[in-house]
């Protein structure tokens, strides 16, 4: 099952709105087929593994990271494909939360006499597939918040100069992280200050993540790199109900998709933003700041994973903080995350934290 999970991760960022599933077929102690969800979501992992195994699938055990699908979509159900191939046993991590599948895939298998075992490495699979499971149940996608800061937690000098705080190795790793997410998200301030492309570069031919900008008033330059490339790589703009209709029309005119979202006070409601992104199919969102957006996500308890890159330099109190004001009075009001990894990346420190 560990191998199946590692295979499933190869599809992360490439197969939304479908889940990134892995499948391994084992017969007589030998792997006879393996697969993961293909780019674009088709074919599914089970179909890829069955095609590789051929006749050897008869009597095999299938290790699948998520319940095989049970509904007819663009292709027949994977549960039926496993039955037709003569698979004798299916071991799965999790039940699918999609109401079209939930429990039905396992029912098809059991009705055909296939032995079913569930709950194997369920916690690990829940981390990998949590965004899909949440989205399928009407909730938000998985959110990773990444910050590259100086030793004293600054993301830029007082003048806004920020390129580059971390080194080339860290920046290359960030491109790899982008590629494993469905979307890269920034706030309007970052879009104005940095004029970023937000694409994955030097990683070969891949499905580029959607570029999401959170901007209540759509006050982002229409001559920006995002606007100029909106027809080449998707740009989605999450805005408030009071955005200027002329700006909405202008951004639609350059090829961007505009998504109206609700407000909380004078700010965009980030829970509403993420719910809308889940409704349109996103399962994993990689947020790269800035400070105000990071604070909004943390204040709303909407962050599933924190990734920090800390460089060995200090900018000082006049620099721009990595996270904006949270209004905390006591330490016990701050949500604590669990440290799961630290690494030296070209002289910078990468530290990764999970929600408890």
UniProtKB/TrEMBL annotation:
Domain CMP/dCMP-type deaminase, chain residue ranges per copy: 1-109
Stored PROSITE patterns: CYT_DCMP_DEAMINASES_1 (PS00903), CYT_DCMP_DEAMINASES_2 (PS51747)
Active site per the UniProt annotation: 46 (proton donor)
Cofactor section: Zn(2+)
A single GO BP: riboflavin biosynthetic process
Catalyzed reaction equations: 5-amino-6-(5-phospho-D-ribitylamino)uracil + NADP(+) = 5-amino-6-(5-phospho-D-ribosylamino)uracil + NADPH + H(+); 2,5-diamino-6-hydroxy-4-(5-phosphoribosylamino)-pyrimidine + H2O + H(+) = 5-amino-6-(5-phospho-D-ribosylamino)uracil + NH4(+)
Binding site for NADP(+): 148, 164, 190, 194, 290-296
Gene Ontology molecular function terms on file: 5-amino-6-(5-phosphoribosylamino)uracil reductase activity; diaminohydroxyphosphoribosylaminopyrimidine deaminase activity; NADP binding; zinc ion binding
SUPFAM superfamilies membership: Cytidine deaminase-like, Dihydrofolate reductase-like
Pathway(s) it belongs to: Cofactor biosynthesis; riboflavin biosynthesis; 5-amino-6-(D-ribitylamino)uracil from GTP: step 3/4; Cofactor biosynthesis; riboflavin biosynthesis; 5-amino-6-(D-ribitylamino)uracil from GTP: step 2/4
Matches recorded under InterPro entries: APOBEC/CMP_deaminase_Zn-bd (IPR016192), CMP_dCMP_dom (IPR002125), Cytidine_deaminase-like (IPR016193), DHFR-like_dom_sf (IPR024072), Eubact_RibD (IPR004794), RibD_C (IPR011549), RibDG_C (IPR002734), Riboflavin_Biosynth_HTPR (IPR050765)
Pfam families on file: dCMP_cyt_deam_1, RibD_C
UniProt binding sites for substrate: 162, 178, 198, 201, 288
Described purpose of this protein according to its UniProt entry: Converts 2,5-diamino-6-(ribosylamino)-4(3h)-pyrimidinone 5'-phosphate into 5-amino-6-(ribosylamino)-2,4(1h,3h)-pyrimidinedione 5'-phosphate.
Full protein name: Riboflavin biosynthesis protein RibD
């Amino acid at each position: 099952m560990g191998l199946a999970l590692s295979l499933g991760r190869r599809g992360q960022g490439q197969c939304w709105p479908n889940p990134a599933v892995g499948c391994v077929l084992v017969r007589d102690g030998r792997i006879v087929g393996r697969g993961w969800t293909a780019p674009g979501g088709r074919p599914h992992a089970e179909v890829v593994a069955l095609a590789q195994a051929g006749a050897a699938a008869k009597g095999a055990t299938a290790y699948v990271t998520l319940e095989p699908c049970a509904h007819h979509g663009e292709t027949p159900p994977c549960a039926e494909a496993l039955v037709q191939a003569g698979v004798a046993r299916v071991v799965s991590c999790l039940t699918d939360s999609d109401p079209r599948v939930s429990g039905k895939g396992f029912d098809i298998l059991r009705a055909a006499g296939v032995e079913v075992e569930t709950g194997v490495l369920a916690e690990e699979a829940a981390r990998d597939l949590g965004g899909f499971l949440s989205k399928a149940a009407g909730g938000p996608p998985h959110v990773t918040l990444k910050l590259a800061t100086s030793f004293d937690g600054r993301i830029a000098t007082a003048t806004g100069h920020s390129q580059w705080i971390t080194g080339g190795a860290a920046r290359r790793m960030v491109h790899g992280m982008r590629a494993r997410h469905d979307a890269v998200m920034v706030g309007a301030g970052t879009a104005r200050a940095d004029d970023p492309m937000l694409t994955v570069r030097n990683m070969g031919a891949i499905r580029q993540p959607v570029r999401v900008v959170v901007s209540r008033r759509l006050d982002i330059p229409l001559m920006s790199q995002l606007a100029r490339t909106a027809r080449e790589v998707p740009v989605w703009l999450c805005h408030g109900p009071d955005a200027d209709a002329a700006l909405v029309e202008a951004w639609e005119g350059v090829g961007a998709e505009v998504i109206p979202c609700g407000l909380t006070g004078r700010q965009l409601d980030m829970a509403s933003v993420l719910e809308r992104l889940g409704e349109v199919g996103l399962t994993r969102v990689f947020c790269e700041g800035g400070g105000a957006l990071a604070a909004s996500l943390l204040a709303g308890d909407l962050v599933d994973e924190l990734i920090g890159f800390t460089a060995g330099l200090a900018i000082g109190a006049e620099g721009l903080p990595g996270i904006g004001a949270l209004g905390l009075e006591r330490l016990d009001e701050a949500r604590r995350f669990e440290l799961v990894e630290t690494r030296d990346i070209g002289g910078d420190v990468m530290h990764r934290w999970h929600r408890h």
